[in-house]
Amino acid sequence: MKAPHFFLSYGDRAPEREYVQRFLRDLERAVRLQGHEETRAVSGPTLTPGPGWKRRLLKECATVGCLVALLSDRYFRSDWCAKEWWTVDERIRRRGDHTDAGVPWIIPVIWRPLSSPIPDAIRSQQRTDWYVHQDARRRGVLHLMDRDNQGPYRETCQTIATLVVEAFSHDLPALDDGQGPQLSWDASAWRRPKQSTPVPEPPPELSPSEKLVHILSHVPSLDEEDTWSRFLDGIARSRPMGVPLQAWQWPHTSPSPERHQNLLKHLCTQYRRAHVFGWVADALESSTGATGHAQAIRSIRDDLPEE
Questions:
Q1: CB-based burial label for 20 (10 Å; 0-12, 13-18, 19+)
Q2: Of 73, 109, 132, 219, which has fewest CB within 10 angstroms of its CB?
Q3: How far is the C-alpha of 157 from the C-alpha of 23, rounded, in Å?
Q4: Residues facing 109 on adjacent strands
């Protein structure tokens, strides 16, 4: 039987360390209340300072029951977070039993609002923000911790604890002693994902606005709630005064061509088309990593007649 403990992986920011430690304690308590009284939670701040602490981090990841990853833009840039992730991922790969493909041995959780696309390696794992409190989906767990109403935060801890307990009920063999620290993956595997979808060539008879809609409709990740929200937030930040866009007006569940067309019409009635096209291109690139699609939109913008 594997050690009944989990590892909390996060991109270190000194001002947030107190919150991370609090979340670690609260999650550990929630797991114990579900019957695993011997549970031990491990993270960077819980280890004794001294030489070799990084090696000890990877050694822990080679034996833990599961890994909880607190996602943030900083997390995506951290080589050590990547090493922690891939150490557990390698254990899952070596297990080789696809009948347990849905077991949450790796549990990604939105910690802070994201301004960059979630890498493919992370997107393929279970995402608790799909069904935790709605404020955690866009603003992250850190936001819930500072609210006067602690109910949503406690509910989130209980939801994640249930996944941790589920992971404990399925054996994940440890790596041999010393093997975990020897693994040397770096973070390049999960930086901005390449957009595999080819950039479409809009039919020449379409208007500039129709061409833009055509291109947006060929970016599949815009149909996902979190990506669509980041896309709208990116446009809003570019607008004068940063006026937010209300996602309910263009829900991600509505058909993509119609949704994109209505959004574009709304923006172009208020601002010059050249500005709108540029904002859309920038937001698309930052939220999805679809650089080719964004460049195609900029080319259309550059060909717009003077207004």
A1: buried
A2: 73
A3: 8
A4: 70
pTM, full prediction? 0.61
Q: What is the amino acid identity at position 277?
A: F
CA 38 to chain centre: 30
Q: CA 192 → CA 79, 269, 291, distances in Å?
A: 14, 33, 10
The answer to whether the beta carbons of residues 105 and 90 sit under 8 Å apart is no
Question: How many angstroms separate the CA atoms of 51 and 252, rounded?
Answer: 49
**How far, in Å, are 2, 90, 169, 209 from residue 100 at the CA level?**
16, 15, 11, 47
Bridge partner residues of 6 (DSSP): 41, 66
Closest CA to 66 of 16, 5, 125: 5
Other CB atoms within 10 Å distance of the CB of residue 146: 9
Q: Where are the domains of the chain?
A: 5-190, 208-302
Sign, Cα dihedral of 58, 63, 64, 69: positive
Contact 256, 222 (CB under 8 A): yes
The matching CATH number, chosen from 3.40.50, 3.30.420, 3.10.129, 1.10.10, for 5-190 is 3.40.50
101: Cβ contacts below 8 Å, ≥ 6 apart: none
φ, ψ of residue 192 in degrees (nearest 5)? -40, 120
pLDDT digits (tens, 9 = 90+) for 135-184: 666 678 998 998 888 988 999 999 999 999 999 888 888 887 555 544 54
